[in-house]
Known about the structure:
Layout: H1 20-25, H2 48-58, H3 62-82, H4 87-103, H5 106-126, H6 131-146, H7 149-157, H8 169-182, H9 187-199, H10 203-215, H11 221-236
Helix pairs in contact: 2-3, 3-4, 4-5, 4-6, 5-6, 6-8, 6-9, 8-9, 9-10, 10-11
Amino acid sequence: MNNYRTILSAGLVAMSVMSGAELxxxxxxxxxxxxxxxxxxxxxxxxxxxxxxxxxxxxxxDEDRRQLLVEAEHHARTxxxxxxxxADRRFALAVVxxxxxxxxxxxxxIRAASALHDQLSAIxxxxxxxxxxxxxxxxxxxxxxxxxxxxxxxATNLLGGETLKQATWAGAEEHLxxxxxxxxEVPDHHLQLARLxxxxxxxxxxxxxxxxxxxxEPRSALEREAHASALxxxxxxxxx
Length: 240
């Protein structure tokens, strides 16, 4: 890649003495929480007080990210209690758990991954064609396969991740392919499928999916992050 620069969105605006949860409870807008555009992954009945915090967490520092995700999980569980039949609301909680599994370490990471697997399995019993849930399950399976042998053994045998033993590359590809075909407007559906193709020795197919990411105009923090990652991977594969 010649002379490209990766530009990510600015971090959270500094919060006041009160936390975001306290401010929200008083009906006061939380600085840095509301993105300017609704991301492609947000559809249907996904609550705004969840997805806005998920997006804000992308560019937050570690402490603020943890706080935002705690708040997002609280809001997600509250919204599920209001409408437990809503697969989209349960998916919103799964997104929060997925971000914790992806960005936190140690036992928190593994336990969040196990809780995510259980949540996704429950969603897919009721809605087997839920593209978002299929995407997260595929990404989770791929993430487990990327763990080194010791970490994967710890995850599946000692730390509550028994269900993660089901993770396979074939299963990950099936879920990610379904999500990419069902919701091609979501950049990360293409990016995660490209990563899987790289991991399984299919660079040409990876390049095709990276091109799909780069053809989409990023509108939110998560989409800008996916675009930046695609640029880096495309450079490594000699695409640009």
